[in-house]
Amino acid sequence: MDRVFNFAAGPATIAESVLEKAQKELVVYQDKGMSVMEMSHRSAMYIDIYNETVALLKDLMKIPDNYKIMFLQGGATLQFSAVPMNLMGENGKADYVDSGNFAHLAAVEAQKYGQVNIVASSRDDNYTYVPDVDAIQWNQDAAYAYITTNNTIYGTRFPKIPETGNVPLIADMSSNILSEEYDVSKFGMIFAGAQKNIGPAGVCVVIVREDLLGKELPYTPKLMSWALQAKNDSMLNTPNTYGIYMAKLGFEWLRDLGGVAAINKINVEKAQILYDYIDESKLFKSPVKAECRSLMNVPFVTGDADKDAAFIKYCTKNGLVNIKGHRNVGGMRASIYNAMPVEGVKKLVEVMKAFEKENA
Ligand SMILES: *Cc1c(COP(=O)(O)O)cnc(C)c1O
Fold first, then answer.
1. Which residue has a Cα nearest atom 2 of ligand 1?
2. pLDDT by residue (tens digit) across 127-155?
3. Which positions ≥6 away from 208 have C-beta within 8 Å?
4. Which amino acid residue places its CA nearest to atom 10 of ligand 1?
5. Secondary structure of residue 269 in the 3-state scheme
6. CATH at 320
7. Which of 40, 242, 277, 310 lies 20 to 30 angstroms, CA to CA, from 170?
């Protein structure tokens, strides 16, 4: 069977050349005589893979030297707990922007460990926009300020990164890491589950400024301590060795393509093709405020559940899969992460046009 265009929100499409490289190296990795899956995580051959993976991410994101990079388990969701556990100790208070479902879950989790102030929220409007960051009153005595740069379910993105003064800014970048350039020095800590824009599920990238290490609450499980994990190169216990190797292949793919600035151009082009058609269409509408539209997740609706269902079927018939929207929004959602080629988006628009014509 041919490969389909997979618009899933996560786990999501992976570049075909990355999968082919993994296939080629599956049984015997380079001259090592064994699969990456069979290597001891303490072996020199695996440590080389790990160090290369870290170096590639550092280059791609231009991560300054005073940041630690880790590849941990437990997904982005474990960091919802790790963030307060590692940082709340300072004074037991944190600011959160409630801009989507994952932001909300993170704030609810953090309440177990301290006082959470929701400094802005778009929850009452079903998260159809990101609150204006310039209007936010940040608490200067907060241990940290928390945002979600791209809201996967609702298809919104922070058009601007807030200035939080001396309060470290923490960002969940799970669904848009490496899709556009961010100045890492503006953040105290960044985390991202790998299964959207990096590789397979099971790895979470954690980037922490060094001065924020070592403040964890005393009962923090050792696997969740950033200080301990950083000191041990993410290997307090056996890491997801194969997942990290797959991340390495993903990073190499992105580097060879020209890096983050280059992929961002392509991402802007892809999103533009889709939004332009949605804006022109009489059948499909975007539920999101224009200035907050995501480059990665594009929800759209017809306003009629039967038509939505018919369109989703029509897509599947045409080799476009996983286009059904999240239940909180309904309709459709096309996730067009880094690995989704422009051709996939063009094909989607063609199919939307044909469906609109047939259903006029
Ligand atoms: C997918 C996602 C998560 C959850 O990731 P897991 O790895 O499943 O825990 C958290 N935040 C955002 C923004 C996401 O897109």
1. 174
2. 999 999 999 999 999 999 999 999 999 99
3. 67, 68, 70, 86, 188, 189, 226, 230
4. 76
5. helix
6. 3.90.1150.10
7. 242
The two beta strands, 93-98 and 144-148, are parallel
- CA–CA dist 25, 172 (Å, integer): 32
Ligand 1 is surrounded, with C-beta below 6 A, by: 10, 75-77, 102, 148, 152, 172, 174-175, 193, 196
Whether the upstream peptide bond of residue 299 has omega within 30° of 0, thus cis, is no
Would you say residue 22 lies in a domain?
no
Please give the tally of structural domains in the chain.
2
Amino acid, single-letter form, for residue 116: V
Which residue type sits at 36?
V
Same domain, 264 and 251: no
Amino acid, single-letter form, for residue 340: M
The SS3 of residue 346 is: helix
pTM above 0.70, yes or no: yes
Domain extent, residue 236, equals 30-257
d(CA 72, CA 85): 16
Q: What is the best residue among 77, 97, 294, 295 to mutate for testing ligand 1's pocket, by most ligand atoms within 8 Å of CB?
A: 77
Do 94 and 213 reside in the same domain of the chain? yes
Helices (H), the chain: 16-24, 44-61, 75-87, 101-110, 226-231, 241-256, 260-280, 305-317, 342-358
> If you take atom 8 of ligand 1, which residue's CA is the nearest one?
75
Please check whether residues 143 and 223 belong to one and the same domain: yes
**pLDDT tens-digit series, residues 231-274:** 999 999 999 999 999 999 999 999 999 999 999 999 999 999 99
**Domain stops at, among 232, 257, 282:** 257
Report CA-CA distances (Å) from 117 to 21, 149, 161, 190, 221: 46, 18, 19, 20, 25
Cα–Cα distance for residue pair 204/189, rounded to 1 Å: 13
User: Could you tell me if 279 and 158 lie in one domain?
Assistant: no
Give the Cα separation of 134 and 142 in Å (integer).
18
